[in-house]
Write the structure tokens for this entry.
Amino acid sequence: MSTALVSTAAALAEAAEARSGLRAVVMTMGALHEGHASLVRAARARVGAAGTVVVTVFVNPLQFGAGEDLDRYPRTLDADLALAAEAGADLVFAPAVDEVYPGGEPQVRIAAGPMGEGYEGAARPGHFDGMLTVVAKLLHLTGPDVACFGEKDGQQLALVRRMVRDLNFPVEILGVETVREADGLALSSRNRFLSAEDRTGALALSRALFAGRDAVPAGPAAVRAAAGAVLAGSGLAPDYLGLIDPVDFTEVDREDFRGEALLALAAKVGRTRLIDNVRIGF
């Protein structure tokens, strides 16, 4: 069956109801790349050949603050549809803004709370409230059994999992491993804005994370120091470099910490702001 493109909630419901089996959703803002394709493939593997995979393509204005790149964000729907189809999607839902927010900007929104205040939340006030609001809406509209999110957006994934748990959404949240270029750069729709020189400079992000991961046997302080040294040597000034407990997204503050942590950072390379993280275990 070919991949269908729908742009209204009514058409989405009609197309989805015509299919049986489990349903998975992959939520995107478009400008799809191999990282998104890996999410679609993971969704297909989870629901099986008889299930339905829905990809949403929606540039959510609530996630962009003053001075951010809403207008600059790439919109490549034809290419997105082709990539989604090749990766195994059954439906692509690409609504207009007034379809998602028919009454204008919503007066009632999901609040990220304390988990959304630090790191990305501190750098981009209101971003996670907007993200959770649209994720909640898209979960209602698509009605999935499982939703797949990339691990590169670590704080987003943690917040979506917490929202689903706290508000009793009947959906499984599946995290999918970050896809990287051969040289280590995490795939991102924003990478297309990097000049050749910026592209080389951006490799410091993954090098810093890998250096921190290699220092795990020496403890949390050594992890931070190793990653920070790489960044300092590259000349990049990070918005943040955090060693984070992914359960509540607070900083790991004990040298005797045991369990999984995220080493996460964000930095501006040229005009383009990039984020990345790696999972590490103590």
The chain has two domains: 4-176, 189-281.
